[in-house]
Amino acid sequence: MEISGSCAVAGIIGWPIEHTRSPRVHNYWLNQYGLDGVYVPLSVEPRYLEKVIPSLTQCGFVGMNVTIPHKENVLDIVDIVDPIAQRIGAINTIVVQPDKSLVGRNTDVEGFITNLYDKIPDWNAASGPAVLFGAGGAAKAAAVALIDEGVPELRVVNRSEDKAQKLRESLNGNIVILSWNQREKALVDAKIVVNATSLGMDGWPALDVNLGRLSSAAIIYDIVYVPLETPLVIQARTNNLRVVDGLGMLLYQACSGFESWFGVKPEVTETLRAHVLADLKTPKQK
Ligand code: ATR
Q: Which of 66, 146, 232, 252 suits 109 as a labelling partner, its CA being 20 to 30 A distant?
């Protein structure tokens, strides 16, 4: 990849950062569209975050992604927090404005929902209840997406019930909390089931739930993508249920940041998926 002295520079800030797949995605697009830009991983310890972000801005960065453990802390650093990032309480994308002010966004909601419609174009939120396993950051993005699309009821099932209660209190919508050992009961009549826990990731136990109670119209959406075929996805396929895997969420959440920084709306293609998948053989998520 050729870059000039005036290339646009963006990157991802995290700690640790070695596991990130984002450079592979953004640099693929930069190459594909022949753009004069580069996207780099930036390992930043929490104690340096407040100094690093203004410094990168002064260095001419067009923007950055933010990942664990900084997503919440950058809320206090940027100048403007967009409404979705405010609702989620976390930022994953920063765009540097021409006057050097910083706008913080959260593109996980967009990534979650665009991926869902990409795989299931006729998905109808109003068709019935949704079940969400998990109550962490990714679960919150999924919850906002499902509520905004109009699911009539969102059943949140999380190992730590207090976290599920907090999620419910922070969002408007018809959210019902069920305990972890009620997880199979939660599936009755559900039209979509989302795994937003760490369960099923390489090195983690599977999400132990029997999908037998679901109707054949139900959709299983697993946001885990290492491996792509999680035990939950395999069980769903065995039961002839439609499946949405998590890789598309990673790719679609990256689109709007790329467009803001580099001026081209990128496409999520099978070739890009294959390019990222080739790197997923080594076990590391995100
Ligand atoms: P992320 O930002 O990716 O959402 P997170 O905020 O750490 O990550 O959330 C991880 C989710 O996986 C949580 O819902 C967590 O449940 P708890 O709130 O009870 O911790 C869930 N999780 C992790 N390990 C789990 C396990 N062994 N069994 C059940 N749920 C688990």
A: 232
